[in-house]
Design a protein that fits this description.
Length: 292
Amino acid sequence: MKGVSILGLNAVWQKVLPMGELNPGSVHRTLTSSTFFSGKGGNVAVAMERLGNVDIELIQALGGEPGKLIEKDMERFSIKPRSLWVSQSTRVCTTLTEKGGRTTELIEPSPELSLNEWERIAEMVEDRLKENRDVLICGSFPGGNPSSLIEALSRRPKESNLWVDGLRQDILELAPMVLKINHKELATLVEKTRSIAVDCEEVSARFGIPNLVITSEDGPVTLWEKSGVQEIPVPSLPGVVNTTGAGDTFFGALAHGRLSGKSWKQSVELGIEWAGLRCGLPNVEDLPSQKR
């Protein structure tokens, strides 16, 4: 399988507190808590690592004590850390989970990167692209001006494909191979919402994106290719424990499936399966290992 570089620049040190039931304005005592490295890029990396047989590296901007905790925690996984140490501290996210799967997230502000720090990230990414690695761009960026990174990505070799989970205009203008967004996000990219197929066709023509995967909270996943459109059903999920990171797990499994030689439809089905599996577990790190 081709090597994969995951851009999870806006890293997170994650704390999860099971609440039973959240009552705002009252005192809560938890019997357990867990902490681990996370963020959209981290979740995608863990899902791909659990599926096995893939060369994964995670590019992150890390800072302060949370950054040190992230690098230490990553030693449990077969994920190569590519860390750029920055002056501001990595953010901490606290997730409160309730019975039935409802979650409340408390997210600290993202760090602000200097022009020099962004240039160093760009140099790291451009160096990794020399190996013709696929690049997965996951979630938001830290603050600051990432123009040097955008320029580096625009010079990528033809053999290096961009996979995007997000809505940054400057990234979409790089004509990624695949864009994964939800229905509401798709609506923001078109002048007037019509059918999903027509909206996807408009986005594809505007940005030069050949494959779009559109998720929904309560319906099928839409796979749009230039050859046609398919709706892939999502089964109901009994026993939901924690939905945080389900979309990231979907994206990681989607990429893993496609890079393993599966069709786009088969890869979407794998993403749906693993997102559902994740929802029945306390944390992304609890996904079962499929390594052989």
